[in-house]
């Protein structure tokens, strides 16, 4: 993302204060961060936009639940030929046993 808020002096100062290194994609290159953009798009569309969190902790726990209990185990992924990660892992294990 190349939003002006990420390039601001205040934001860069905040990153430095907490020991983070800022990184922005190259201008006009949407592929620099495509995997992360895809994940956050899914997270927002499938989970966050439908919820109203009372606390930051509640939001954190819900996002962690989405990642561990759905996204990384049951959600269909185009990269995995529209299988979920658990099915894909079983397929690979079956191929390994057959070899």
TrEMBL record:
One Gene Ontology term of the molecular function aspect: nucleic acid binding
Pfam families: rve_2
Annotated GO biological process: DNA integration
Residues making up the signal peptide according to the UniProt record: none
Gene3D superfamilies attached to this UniProt entry: Ribonuclease H-like superfamily/Ribonuclease H (3.30.420.10)
Listed InterPro entries: Integrase_cat-core, RNaseH-like_sf, RNaseH_sf, Transposase_IS3/IS150/IS904
UniProt-recorded name of the protein: IS3 family transposase
Organism: endosymbiont of Lamellibrachia luymesi
């Amino acid at each position: 993302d190349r939003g002006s808020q990420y390039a601001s002096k205040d934001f860069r100062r905040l990153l430095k204060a907490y020991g983070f290194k800022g990184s922005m994609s190259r201008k006009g290159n949407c592929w620099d961060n495509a995997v992360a953009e895809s994940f956050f798009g899914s997270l927002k569309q499938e989970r966050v936009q439908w919820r109203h969190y009372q606390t930051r902790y509640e939001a954190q726990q819900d996002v962690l639940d989405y990642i561990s209990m759905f996204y990384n185990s049951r959600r269909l992924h185009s990269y995995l030929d529209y299988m979920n990660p658990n099915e894909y892992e079983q397929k690979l294990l079956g191929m390994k046993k057959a070899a």
